[in-house]
Write a structure and sequence with these properties.
Helices cover 25% and strands 33% of the residues. By secondary structure, the protein is α+β, with helices and mostly antiparallel strands. The chain has a 5-stranded mixed β-sheet, covered by helices on one side.
Amino acid sequence: MSLVNYLQNEDLCSIGAKLTAHIAADQELARYCDMHFGKTLTIIVGPPEAYMPQDINAPYLFIHDFGKAEGAAINTASYECVFSLGLDVDEENAELQPDVIIYAGQQRTSEMLTLLQDALYQYKGGCQPPTTVEQLMPGLPGNNSRHWEGFLTAVWTLDISIGGQNHF
């Protein structure tokens, strides 16, 4: 494959692989998964529709819907992707105060998304955190009351001199 070597041209699958390695190495996420689920986080680069996870795969994280904006005449490139989190939660619900109950799945999903966001903030030693992060917690995707999901969308903008490069 021939590439113009003086322009920014990041491979989106490579970005997914870099993010996977970074997230898999995060000690806080690893401790949390071990403490609450007794196993490590399964990370998959690609669309969730291509691989329907089972309860035995949870907790899992899909990194998908990659996008980029690059070009010879721009001085800011942007990269984005979506993280889809799936958890299998069978723990007791928490009662914060009388008549206020927090579902355990809601709490675990929120905590995992927060840890994921913190891990992304530490990308490249904290020198290249996402510019924007959005979270969405739809909760239960179907009729399985133990399976919870959440989504995080991250966007990185990188300053690039005209004709220069700033690798993701």
